[in-house]
Specification:
The complex is a heterodimer. By secondary structure, chain A is α+β, with helices and mostly antiparallel strands. In chain A, 32% of the residues lie in helices and 26% in strands. In chain A, 50% of the residues are buried. Chain B has 2 domains: 83 residues, Beta Barrel (OB fold (Dihydrolipoamide Acetyltransferase, E2P)); 109 residues, RNA polymerase II/Efflux pump adaptor protein, barrel-sandwich hybrid domain (OB fold (Dihydrolipoamide Acetyltransferase, E2P), Beta Barrel). In chain B, strands 1-8-6-3 form a 4-stranded antiparallel sheet, with no helix packed on it. Chain B has a 4-stranded antiparallel sheet with strand order 5-4-2-7, with no helix packed on it. Chain B has a 4-stranded antiparallel sheet with strand order 9-16-14-11, covered by helices on one side. In chain B, 24% of the residues are buried. The chains are: A alpha+beta, B alpha+beta.
Chain lengths: 470, 214
């Protein structure tokens, strides 16, 4: 591999994982940070490994000029966007590719991000390929009258289908990550919710477009992990189940594989459903000539019907649980999807195909967050004074929270503290290990009024028992 | 509330200065256009449409950005060693020692006279769409507020919370932020003037007008 220098245009634990992947590939890297993140672990790690020449303070992670300015000054040849920020911004990827001094964008090519970055366009392509999608709007709605007409239609349709409590979802079109979504149970309150979401979308994303779709009840949220290359290779790394989410629909516990018929009975043929989702995902990937890592998000209803939600054209927070249960013959140990993503973006071949991939055991991801689960997952702000967790061969912990000094959680970002990846030879063992890990983890801290830290550890403990159960 | 206007004015007269640290707003190569000890001007004109003295040019991605002074004052602590160099965001570049004018003194004293509604957390703040609409129609200083009114939206970690005003009823007299600003915990969001204090507020303004030399 030619000597490359990767600019890591992200923060927190994903920045740390990308640094590790770069180290393992023998690549140089530089990191950026904002004033609020000066105490973050990703800055400390970069300073320790590469010195101050590899660490740049910028005004914002969301300013593309800052990223390109640092890329040029530092001589970076590639940009890894991580997740969030520029990871699904096709304009950013296009600018990287087409500027006078081109820089490799570590992700799919910009045309693919553009085409699949829009949930609506994805829906259209999927429909044309016979892939099932959720009934609802095919484009962002800006007119209240148009929105109300569609809402009425969706309520009527559900009544016709005999659905007991019909409801619809109103979403900020430009949103993501579970933010800016509200459920409407009755047409009478639709207009009020529509206006609220429209205002929220305008404030947060500068675009007041809103999507409306049928709200599916009693479903599981699943994902298919794909890895593709610029040489038209497509490999899947199985499925994940991300059903356990906060009230704001942010994931908290994820499991790979997506269902486990050996421990739970499902009211449908779980293996067939998983196979169908993988088959459909690959069909869409091949159609658009997908060329990097990506996640195909699905919901599966109680009657065993899968519906494609969207495609995340980036590395996903929870990618590692898929990697953790995947084995590639001729390679030692679990897969590192971030490494594979970087290799693929730099134009390398995968060096393996689907027949070389096998799966072993179950992996659970726990997202430790400073939040008050009892108050609607309200974020907690303050300073962490102690953070200790067990060190076991079956667990990996990614955190930007330093363990050797107090850490003030920046209020500009979500209060995610750590990602915990647990592996077990089967689902039962993975669950037991996850619970052991939580029991032995200690987090202390205080807010500005002197009250103790609130985290979601006990919530995670309770939820581990429920994983994969329909 | 007892406020001694004479004491306040004496305090400001004994040290009528404020040092403004000039930080690089973003990364780029800096080229200074002022010298140590130079007097600089802030923006001027009826609508502040004439920019202040050019302090430095910050070039990033082939875009030279002209950074002008936002204050009248004297340049001190100029980092001449950074001239022509790449700087990071937030890099201190110089100080401008500014002499407070009548309006600024008035604003500072008003903060002590008005009922201040502070930011409960370090977060991004917006007025509610209803209040914003009233401001757009120019209805500032005629907007009455009372406990329970929804005035401000706090956006913390991307979650929006509507804040209800708590405090004495009165007129929303001063606003200390623009929609979308990030404020530190405790920073003033707006000041409410109690009806009975309006004459005192007018007196403050009048005295500063006559006693302070700009």
């Amino acid at each position: 591999m030619k000597k490359e220098k990767v600019l890591i245009a992200n923060r927190g634990e994903i920045a740390i994982r990308i640094m590790k992947a770069c180290n393992e590939l023998g690549l140089d890297y530089v990191v950026v940070y904002t004033k609020e993140d000066r105490a973050s672990g990703h800055v400390k790690k970069a300073l320790k490994e590469r010195g101050s020449q590899a660490v740049y303070r910028i005004s914002s992670y969301k300013d593309p000029n800052e990223i390109f300015s640092v890329a040029d000054h530092s001589g970076a040849t590639a940009i890894h966007p991580g997740y969030g920020f520029f990871s699904e911004d096709f304009r950013f990827a296009r600018r990287a590719a087409l500027r006078n001094r081109p820089i490799t964008f570590i992700g799919p090519r910009w045309e693919v991000i553009r085409d699949l970055g829009s949930k609506i366009n994805t829906k259209r392509i999927a429909k044309s390929l016979g892939i099932p999608v959720i009934p609802g709007s095919d484009e962002p709605i800006y007119s209240e009258i148009e929105a109300e007409t569609l809402a009425e239609e969706l309520f009527l349709k559900q009544k016709e289908q005999g659905i007991d409590k019909p409801s619809i979802l109103v979403k900020a079109s430009a949103g993501g990550g579970g933010m800016g979504i509200e459920e409407v149970n009755h047409l009478d309150v639709f207009r009020q919710v529509y206006r609220r979401i429209q205002n929220y979308a305008k404030r947060q994303f500068g675009d007041e477009g809103v999507l409306i779709e049928q709200c599916m009840r009693d479903y599981h949220h699943l994902e298919v992990q794909l890895l593709c290359s610029q040489h038209k290779e497509v490999v899947h790394f199985g499925t994940r189940n991300c059903t356990i989410q906060s009230t704001g629909r942010q994931k908290r516990v994820e499991v790979a594989p997506g269902f486990d018929p050996s421990i739970w009975e499902y009211p449908f043929d779980a293996r067939k459903v998983l196979d169908d989702m993988v088959k459909y995902s690959i069909r869409l990937a091949e159609k658009v000539e997908y060329d990097n890592v990506g996640t195909w998000e699905w919901i599966v209803t109680r009657d065993g019907k899968p519906y494609l939600l969207e495609v995340n054209t980036r590395i996903q927070v929870e990618n590692e649980i898929s990697a953790c249960i995947s084995r590639i013959s001729r390679q030692r140990g679990p897969v590192n999807l971030i490494k594979e993503q970087i290799r693929s973006a730099l134009g390398e071949k995968l060096n393996f195909s689907q027949r070389h991939v096998s799966f072993e055991g179950t992996s659970i991801e726990l997202r430790i967050v400073a939040e008050d689960v009892k108050r609607g997952f309200a974020p907690w702000c303050g300073t962490i004074t102690r953070f200790e967790f067990p060190d076991e061969p079956w667990v990996r912990v990614y955190t930007h929270v330093p363990q050797d000094e107090p850490y003030e959680i920046p209020t500009e970002y979500d209060p995610n503290l750590a990602l915990v990846i647990v592996w077990g030879k089967d689902t039962q063992e993975a669950k037991e290990r996850a619970k052991d890990f939580i029991s032995e983890t200690i987090i202390d801290g205080k807010d500005s009024r002197g009250n103790g830290i609130i985290t979601n550890l006990s919530y995670l403990y309770e939820k581990v028992d429920e994983v994969l159960r329909f | 509330m007892s406020i001694n206007l004479n004491d306040l004015l004496r305090k400001y007269k004994s040290h009528p200065y404020e040092d403004h640290e000039i930080l690089a707003p973003h990364t780029g190569v800096v080229k200074f256009k002022v010298e140590e000890g130079q007097a600089v001007k802030g923006p001027s004109g009826q609508w502040l449409h004439r920019p202040g003295t050019l302090l430095y040019i910050l070039e990033r991605e082939k875009n030279p950005k002209r950074i002008t002074s936002r204050f009248d004052g004297i340049v001190t602590d100029l980092r001449v060693d950074l001239d022509g160099k790449f700087v990071e965001a937030g890099q201190p570049l110089m100080l401008i020692r500014h002499r407070l004018n009548k309006q600024e003194i008035t604003n500072r004293i008003l903060k002590e006279v008005l009922h201040i509604f502070p930011a409960p957390e370090r977060a991004r703040y917006f007025f509610t769409p209803e209040i914003s609409a009233k401001f757009e129609k120019g209805k500032t200083k005629s907007l009455s507020v009372k406990t329970g009114d929804e005035i401000v939206i706090m956006s913390l970690m991307k979650r929006d919370t509507t804040l209800n005003y708590e405090g004495p009823s009165g007129v929303l007299y001063e606003v200390y932020f623009k929609n979308g600003d990030i404020l530190e915990q405790g920073a003033p969001l707006f000041g409410v003037c109690l009806p009975e204090r309006l004459p005192f507020v007018e007196k403050v303004i009048q005295r500063i007008k006559t006693e302070w030399d700009d």
